[in-house]
Amino acid sequence: MKFDQPATLNPIDRARVVGKPVDRIDGPLKVAGAAPYAYERHDVAPNPAYGWMIGSAIAKGTINSIDTTEAEAAPGVLAVLTHANAGALGKGNMNTARLLGGPDIQHYDQAVALVVAETFEQARDAAKLVRVDYTQGQGKFDLLVGVKTAQPPKSVQGSPADTSVGDFDGAFKSAAVKVDQTYTTPDQSHAMMEPHATTAAWAGDKLTVWTSNQMVTWAVKEMAKTLKIAPENVQVVSPYIGGGFGSKLFLRADALLAALGARAVGRPVKVALARPQIPNNTTHRPATIQRLRIGATKDGVIQAIGHDVWAGDLPGGDVESAGLQTRLLYAGKNRKTTHRLAELDLPEGNAMRAPGEAVGLLALEVAMDELAEACGVDPVELRIKNDIQYDPEAGPKRPFSSRKLIECLQQGAERFGWSKRNPKPGQVREGDFLIGMGVAAAFRNNMAMPSGARVAIDGKGRITVSTDMTDIGTGTYTIIAQTAAELLGVNVSDVTVKLGDSSFPASAGSGGQWGANSSTAGVYATCMTLRGMLAQKVGFNAEDALFEDGMIKAAGKAIPLRDAVGREGISVDDKIEFGDLTERYAQATFGAHFCEVAVDRFTGEVHVRRMGGAFAAGRILNPKTARSQVIGAMTMGVGAALMEELVVDKRFGYFVNHDMAEYHVPVHADIPEQDVLFLDELDDKSSPMKAKGVGELGICGAGAAVANAIYNATGVRLRDYPMTLDKVIGGLTKA
């Protein structure tokens, strides 16, 4: 099915199943410990050996030699693999650094060897016996230094690195009110519950990897290219994933090393990265330096808006796209955005939940708060005043497919009690605590990806949906079952969903907030094809046929599905493909975050007391699972605002705090009850589901709302994240 015209009334609009808060169908398996994760596939890979990765002790340089003699003689050791004996390897298109390093080293903790042994403990202990001799090179590890030679990248998420509309410099210079500030965000680490883990096995020249990966089709292609084998000889299986946030979009060292180890020892091999190996060996969110310049009239109408971004990555990597939302979120006739990439020898920077907008809004939405204060305008009113219903760079010829930012701000403010906020900072006290409220807009582009599925109905009328789509804890199993149940007129309990296997039709995968909308649209396309075939088979006009109560109904007749398909059953493959609607219409999701904090005036400790959010993201396919995604994203936003930071040792080029003891993330005690409101919205330009993504929207702007609340509470304006208590108390001391 080609989706190239706005959706009209269709069977999803009946909303008998889709849009309802259905419990996650995979929930019982997970709480019972029966959901098979990658490292636990004892059922399919018996008698496995275990691998332990050895990472580089330097960040830049060359391996002179690797002595594996002692390790190979250690109890239980089956093999020690290095670049010297692993065979010829390629590099995937989506990996900036090689997954097995040597002789050249590209970053600290880059995999340089794998020890395979009978037990995990034997492999781990023998790894200490491997002797690697290096020549250390001169690396570049400081973004502040790197900005001096930073260059514009070829593109930013497929868009130009720089954009310009009107006369920004002239309009900013002549503006009555100006904000010109620089904001910084640190490197951040993924901290998902399940580490990167893989079980690999060979059968002749065919490889199967049971791995934790968000994008199964990508993984097949990347593994084949890295091993220099045919893609049809690679099967990737990833039915359950304990969190990903973008770190598992791409093939990582665990998968490659498990495959190499299994080939070397002739039996299945398991490899899991230990928690301290994840920050330096996998991907992370890169640090940014962002300059925001906004010029406005005295009453807050934006005349000029400019956003300059600097970020770092390995040579050949990508820049953090922190200026993209500034191109679309607010009005202003004179505009400019720039992105500059500094080449650094730190571990690879790449996608982390809402890449670009998550950190871009940490800067933009604080700058908007500063503008509101400078103009004496309420921060909510300022954002409403600068709303725009079309792409401000392209003009009215490219309207938004749907945009309810104003409604999000208004309804969110009313639910949160924004009218009770004292606009003057530092005025509200409760004992030793200073109380403040903050607001920030939420924005995330809406993307769609081609997605396929197989839908089968057996002779008993039971439906099975198979697709290589993944569930990273977001409820994919459930919304796909809901979609099939809606379209074929059955109960959710009558649908079995099979995910995460490359032998199934290729789907969109989980990433970029495109997964739910795209994958359900793929199921929609397949079910619609199946509906047409069944209607024709029983002699009904497909357009008149009604699928409900397990039957096909038309012309006063009702035929059970099981009778329509017959004893042999029926199976159909199809997919959704998207046309140029994203070019003709700007497509995005919107929201408004509200936060109340209490700041201890003696210690500077920040306590988040209340959070509220109102969001417009098309049809909400399942409000229960969608809310779960949003509150998780809001929680990550609190982490970004108050505590998350990978500390760079600028002498040796590594992240010092690379475990959960020192890389701080919010815990339950840090997060209060979060109020989430989804606005009624159908976006007929997005997909036949009229839905959009929501999984990343909740983090976009959340941290800025916390920052703005801190300012309202204390009068201390912080522009360097995270806003740890030392920075807060330093500001309070000066105040």
General description of the model:
With 735 residues, the chain is α+β, with helices and mostly antiparallel strands. Helix content is 25%, strand content 26%. The protein is built from 18 helices and 32 strands. The strands form eight sheets. It has a seven-stranded mixed beta sheet. A five-stranded mixed beta sheet has the order 1-27-21-22-23. α12 runs parallel beside α13 and α16 (623-642) crosses α17. The protein is globular and about 75 Å long. The protein starts with a strand and ends with a helix. The model has no long low-confidence stretch (mean pLDDT 97).
- Can you give the helix content as a percent range? 10-25%
Structural class: alpha+beta
How many H/I helices? Answer: 18
Percent strand equals: 25-35%
The largest sheet, given as strand count, sense and whether it forms a barrel, is: 7 strands, mixed
Task: State the distance separating the first and last CA atoms.
Answer: 62 Å
Provide the low-confidence segments as ranges. Answer: none
Strand neighbour order, sheet with most strands: 4-6-2-14-11-12-13
Shape: globular
Could you give the count of β-strands? 32
Would you tell me the overall average pLDDT?
97
> Whole-number radius of gyration?
27 Å
Give a topology summary.
Layout: E1 2-3, H1 27-31, E2 49-55, E3 61-67, H2 69-72, E4 77-82, E5 104-105, E6 111-117, H3 120-127, E7 131-136, H4 143-146, E8 163-165, H5 168-174, E9 177-185, E10 188-189, E11 197-203, E12 206-211, H6 216-227, E13 234-237, H7 253-265, E14 269-272, H8 278-281, E15 284-285, E16 288-296, E17 302-313, E18 334-343, H9 357-375, H10 379-385, H11 405-416, E19 428-430, E20 433-445, E21 451-457, E22 463-466, H12 476-488, E23 495-498, H13 515-537, E24 546-548, E25 551-554, E26 557-560, H14 561-565, E27 570-578, H15 581-584, E28 588-600, E29 606-616, H16 623-642, E30 648-649, E31 654-655, E32 674-678, H17 702-714, H18 725-734
Parallel strand pairs: 1-27, 2-14, 12-13, 17-18, 22-23, 29-32
Antiparallel strand pairs: 2-6, 3-5, 3-7, 4-6, 8-18, 9-16, 10-15, 11-12, 11-14, 16-17, 19-20, 20-28, 21-22, 21-27, 24-25, 25-26, 28-29, 30-31
Helix pairs in contact: 9-17, 12-13, 16-17
